[in-house]
Specification:
CATH superfamily: Spore Coat Polysaccharide Biosynthesis Protein SpsA, Chain A
CATH topology: Spore Coat Polysaccharide Biosynthesis Protein SpsA, Chain A
Largest sheet: 5 strands, mixed, barrel
CATH class: Alpha Beta
Distance between the termini: 59 Å
Number of helices: 11
Radius of gyration: 20 Å
Strand order of the largest sheet: 8-11-9-10-12
Order of helices and strands: EEEHEHHEHHEEHEEEHEHHEEHH
Helix content: 25-40%
Shape: globular
Strand content: 15-25%
Number of domains: 1
């Protein structure tokens, strides 16, 4: 298994971020990255893939997204050249954006027919190869400064010659928010499991009955991290799921296709050394920015600012 390509799903219009996402491309919302440079969200996510060894990236978007993203990213690149008088950091960032644009392809999801359908739209781009799948509204922060989260996942998939999903042990009251799975320890591989059953956003009762994984802390379940390394044959299972969904008049989801993959072959789940942050969750942009700041060059500045903010909040009297 060799992973050269990445697919990032970003066709959703960001309803959890309305009204701002109705006027600003969700992926262009700015965050201060670990290197101290303010970047669009989508650039941070794409750089996660590129710095993990991926050569080509496909962004799955809605109609019109390609024109918007290319225009905005090109403007950003050209603006760096023009506005900062040849500063070294600006040249470096402009070159990074130029490299990103050369690697970037787009696939169009003409109608919002579910996450599985969004992934299926990248079939032509994948063209029979194994690929990395990531979400367009999640930022991944590795605890290892030398190995990105995506790099950790790709290395395991290539070493074990099988698909791998990133997972996070998650407290029981949160399983309703995530795809959740059960499995068994994968031999001598630390924090790696062989996937047995996957349920999309289960109730706690269902999780207690069907999704217990031996060895986890009490009250914890394995939930998807939002990142997978997958084989191209997944599209065969997605095609069957798409047909079933259309026959039933519903959306095509990814989870049934992943379950079929687990039924047919060895499919691993790995706890990564890192965290994932969903910008669409309540206060998601705030938490993501804090996490980036605490993992970056300006950690001390972020820490002192948070302490000052919390101290001021503690001293304010109750009431309006």
């Amino acid at each position: 298994m060799a992973v050269r390509k990445a697919v990032i799903t970003a066709a959703g219009r960001g309803p959890r971020l309305y009204p701002v996402a109705d006027t600003v491309q969700k992926g262009m919302l700015p965050l201060l990255d670990r290197d101290g440079i303010a970047k669009p969200l989508i650039q941070i996510i794409i750089e996660e893939a590129i710095e993990s060894g991926v050569e080509e990236v496909c962004l799955v978007g809605a109609p019109g997204d390609e024109e918007q993203y290319r225009r905005l990213l090109t403007q950003l690149r050209d603006g760096l050249d023009c506005a900062y008088g040849g500063a070294a950091w600006a040249k470096t960032q402009a070159q990074a954006l130029d490299d990103l644009l050369r690697r970037l392809s787009f696939a169009v999801q003409e109608e919002p027919m579910g996450y599985g359908h969004a992934v299926y739209c990248a079939k032509s781009f994948v063209n029979g190869e194994d690929f990395l799948l990531m979400l367009g509204d999640h930022v991944y922060i590795s605890a290892d400064p030398e190995r990105r989260c995506a790099r950790q996942l790709i290395e395991l998939a290539e070493r074990e010659h099988c698909p791998v999903a990133a997972v996070n042990p998650t407290r029981e009251h949160l399983v309703r928010l995530y795809g959740t799975l059960s499995g068994k320890r994968a031999g001598d591989l630390a924090n790696v499991y062989e996937i047995e059953k996957i349920v999309e956003k289960p109730s706690l009762g269902k999780a207690e009955l069907e999704l217990q994984t031996p060895g986890l802390r009490v009250g914890h379940y394995l939930c998807f991290f939002g990142m997978h390394v997958l084989p191209a044959r997944l599209f065969d299972y997605l095609e069957a799921e798409l047909w079933n969904a259309q026959s039933a008049g519903g959306d095509c989801q990814l989870t049934p296709a992943l379950q079929e993959l687990a039924n047919r072959e060895r499919y691993l789940a790995a706890e990564l050394r890192g965290t994932r942050h969903d910008i669409g969750a309540p206060f998601g942009m705030l938490y993501t920015q804090m996490a980036l700041g605490l993992a970056g060059r300006q950690r001390d500045l972020m820490l002192s600012g948070v302490v000052e903010l919390l101290s001021g909040a503690a001293q304010r009297p109750d009431g309006p």
